[in-house]
Design brief:
Aminopeptidase, alpha+beta, 13-stranded mixed sheet, 379 residues, 13 helices, 27% strand, globular
């Protein structure tokens, strides 16, 4: 018998958090997250999402044994920005058990309906500013890079059979040996330097003034990304929380801030792919001797990085600052020992960005699917 229960105590939260470790135990391409990080992420008192969002967590049990999980949530900032009433599901995991999956999906739908929302979209974990959304489709036979998903191949059909339709496809592009960019990227960098001279300044993020640099990134991000699908304005607390997490693994030569006439106009943040280490730490514990050895010797194990955030103020978009940053990033990354760069995620409908990635010499590495379902008009 299938029973879906809300997470209400430490025991049920433990079931919710532990389920993926059992489900993917024998999957060599699944990257186990750190257990302590996941516990903090789902803590309503610690995750800044809950300053503007609501969520409940659910676990499906078959004869008392946990077999699946899902979250249902709404984001008031998303509603205010997009002027919609769209709810979300996320963090779905389930054994290949259609009955359990259907019960979880209906639970999430009913939760959203009860709040008089017209549509449900997912998986969104919790927003596009957190872990990358989507179910794995193309490329799931290879491990994902930092903060990208890896999910079971049967998930999309479970949701399609429940009336969901494909909403968006997100692309991940990968480039081997990034030193081999087309010459035009270097030419654009040199032309900008010649044109603007001392008026143009490019530097890396400075950990000594991290708070100020984070404010610069937040300002540019919220203008540069405001027209993108799924965009939600990042709050000060959210970007500060992200900075606190990422500064533990950041490699400063992979970050850039561009200034013109002392105005911050563009930024890029790439991160070493710590998944290269996490994938070997199968139990997700920070107390594993194996994990501690990997962390202390991470430079030996990480040979690729992910371009996670990139933005240019709208009035400067056509000047080529993105090409300048890519040229320097790939040059500095290769000089630092990185052999591979991944660019994600890019909407499949964003033809200019996908064409630019292909023009760089990158190839499609993975794709992630978002689905949606109408729930009817509100009462």
């Amino acid at each position: 018998m299938i029973e879906v229960r809300a997470v209400t105590d430490r025991r049920s939260l433990g079931h919710f958090l532990d389920l993926p470790y059992r489900l993917y135990r024998d999957d060599p391409n699944w990257v186990p997250p750190l257990r302590f990080e996941r516990k903090m992420f789902f803590d309503r008192k610690k995750n800044p999402f809950f300053e503007h969002g609501e969520a409940d967590y659910f676990v499906a049990y078959r004869d008392g044994v946990p077999v699946g999980r899902i979250t249902a949530h709404i984001d008031h900032n998303y509603d205010a920005y997009h002027k919609t009433r769209h709810g979300f599901f996320g963090f779905f995991e389930c054994s290949n058990d259609p009955e359990a999956a259907r019960a979880l999906i209906e639970t999430a739908e009913n939760w959203v309906k009860a709040r008089r929302y017209e549509r449900i979209i997912g998986p969104m974990n919790f927003t596009t500013n957190h872990d990358s959304p989507g179910f794995s489709t193309f490329g799931a036979d290879q491990p994902p890079l930092l903060m990208n998903p890896h999910t079971m191949p049967y998930y999309p059909d479970l949701f399609r059979s429940a009336g969901f339709a494909d909403e968006q496809v997100l692309n991940s592009w990968i480039l081997e040996e990034p030193k081999a960019l087309p010459q035009e990227f270097r030419n654009r960098d040199e032309k900008l330097c010649t044109k603007y001279g001392d008026r143009l300044k490019v530097r890396h993020i400075d950990l000594k003034r991290l708070r100020q640099d984070v404010d610069i990134i937040l300002k540019i991000f919220n203008e540069a990304w405001c027209d993108n699908w799924g965009y939600v304005p990042m709050t000060d607390r959210e970007i500060a929380a992200m900075a606190d997490e990422l500064k533990l693994i950041v490699d400063l030569p992979l970050t850039y801030l561009v200034f013109l006439d002392d105005e911050a106009v563009a930024f890029m943040v790439a991160m070493p792919d710590i998944n290269r280490i996490l994938i070997k730490n199968r139990n997700g514990s920070i107390f594993s001797r194996h994990f501690l050895h990997l962390i202390l010797n991470k430079k030996k194990h990480i040979d690729r990085f992910r371009v996670m955030l990139l933005g240019t103020l709208k009035k400067y978009r056509l000047l080529g600052f993105d090409a300048l940053m890519y040229h320097r990033l790939f040059h500095d990354g290769y000089a630092s020992g990185y052999l591979t760069v991944e660019m994600s995620w890019i909407l499949d409908t964003n033809k200019p960005m996908n064409n630019a990635a292909a023009h760089m010499g990158a190839h499609l590495y993975q794709q992630y699917l978002i689905l949606a379902k109408p729930l009817g008009p509100t009462a």
